[in-house]
Amino acid sequence: MRWRDRYGLRKRRGQRLAKFDREATDADIEALIEFAKSRRGVEFYVEPETFATDTTAVAVADDGEWTRRRVGSPAVIHKVARNLALPVYDVQLTGYPPRMRAYNERRKQAEG
Length: 112
Fold this sequence. Notes:
Blueprint: H1 9-13, H2 26-38, E1 43-47, E2 56-60, E3 66-70, H3 74-84, E4 88-90, H4 91-94, H5 98-111
Parallel strand pairs: 1-4
Antiparallel strand pairs: 1-2, 2-3
């Protein structure tokens, strides 16, 4: 089976690749899409590539539930968000939404 570049991961990544991390795959992008389609009020927050990790995106739902996946480059998540008509924010400029922190606190209290 030939690997298809359905979401433009190879084309948009360019020559840079994180040193220790695996590359983003279609499964990563599809997980974000499934999360967004199955929850209300989803917003994407792009996290920059670091030396150890590829560019990632955090999808945060209206209730604060969230998931993080590799996306290869910001252009990929922007394309996905445009197709889903959802907003995308740069986490370095906006930070994470308070509802995400509140969700984490609720989970901690429920576990402990």
